Amino acid sequence: MDKELSVDFLKKKYKLAPERKPRKNKKGLKFLGVFFAVAILSGLFFSYQVAKTPVNDTPSTESFSIFSSVKRFMTSRDKELVGEQDDRINFLLLGVGGAGHDGPELSDTMIFASFRPSTKEMGLMSIPRDLIVEIPDYGYRKINHANAYGEMEEAGTGPVKSKQVVSEMLSQDIHYTVKVNFNGFEELINAVGGVDVYVDNSFTDNTYPTNDELVQTISFEKGWTSMDGETALMFARSRHGNNGEGSDFARAIRQQKILLAVKDKVLSPSVILNPGKLNKMIEIFQKNVQTDLTVWEMLKLAKFAPDINSENMAHHVLDDSATSPLYPSNINGSYVLLPKKDDWSEVRSIAENVFANSDQNSIGGEKKAINSEVAIEIQNGTHMSGLAFETSQLLSGTGFNVQKIGNADSRSYNKTIIYDLTGGTKANELAILKNFLEADVALSTEGWVYSEEVVPRELTVTTPGEDYIQSEEPIDFLVILGEDAQSLVLR
Q1: Hey, do 34-319 and 367-489 end up sharing a CATH topology, with the first three levels equal?
Q2: Which class does domain 34-319 fall in?
Q3: Residue 274 has what pLDDT?
Q4: φ and ψ at 169, to 5 degrees?
Q5: Is the pLDDT score of 86 beyond 90?
Q6: Residue 5 scores a pLDDT above 60
Q7: Residue (of 84, 281, 291, 274) closest to 173 by Cα position
Q8: What fold does the segment set 367-489 form as a domain?
Q9: Predicted local confidence at residue 218, as pLDDT
Q10: Domain extents in the chain
């Protein structure tokens, strides 16, 4: 399991450390929509198709006697799914690395998904793993630990713990949970003979993680591409592609393409009429999927599945962009995400209106005008002469008010870091500055901790002294340039 994050606001004083430790880029199931492809759009689609087939026409293999029984079971009952009466069925979809991976029960992906039976609409909202929430009995932790803590208490109860945490945060009833491990995705794609996906933009990612915690370069060319399981996983998981493919929004679109490609392939005659492939998918489902959906509930959901397409599917990606309800910070050396308004009201609003589609601007790309009163101090944390001055010229040209430049006490920074001294009150400007400098962000003042809905008021954060910050003028953001900033001024 990953090193636990202990948020001790009483004893830990924030200091301007030279840099935070980079997070491991683990290989896990880190993309939206894969769960439905594995857990619903595979196990359900072919089950429904077989259930529709007359028993006498079903291939005479042992496995298909299961489907004959399921068909009789389903047609003998006219039940409603939980939430169907209210025309909204909510799911929590979890993805974990599984055995053989670091932190096998940490949720690499968490998705809140809603389905509206009357219109066949579906909404997906990704929940970032670095979001700080209260986990019952464990205090304030990253939300991806909820499943792991549940599994430690009792095997198989991780989804229950995660469901409890997410339901409270979103103020939504969660009717069903689906948990998938990483190995199942590749196996599913390979079992159906691969998928055909249209790549909208050619792109290259030079930092895609390998199994041995190194990196490799992957690339995709525009146009139709046949992908096996490993290739499809790379396409869906890539986080640092060029040509506009490095954003959370772009990644969500690629994930949606994989989802629909899997659905189309599973429904194709080459799969649905192939007993061998159906048997293989049953095996994959049994080994890699844990759900509280019963067989008849899966089959009833399967009736809706063919009508789910990109036109009635909405994606919402919570990130650290200017328009997101979250903002990034650094607690005890760990990257975390916190709510901007000191409560979950904006996040809950997105969950409540999850069927409303989001375009690229609303998800993460829109940049509002910079407030010219935003004051910045720049310190050179490297031995490159003139780096602070050159960077100040670039920032001034974008509308920021650079009040002071100088050298940091330490000259050994590798990564540029921004210290937010506003308490999160200038989130738009912070997001623009962060994206422009490709920097990390650390919170250095009291902020979201004042909300009783998130953290009790008696917990506080100590603000570093002005002498430590070395700023003679009131500033909003302190930027300490690392080695990576050299590429910015040399462009």
Answers
A1: no
A2: alpha beta
A3: 84
A4: -65, -45
A5: yes
A6: no
A7: 84
A8: Alpha-Beta Plaits (3.30.70)
A9: 94
A10: 34-319, 367-489
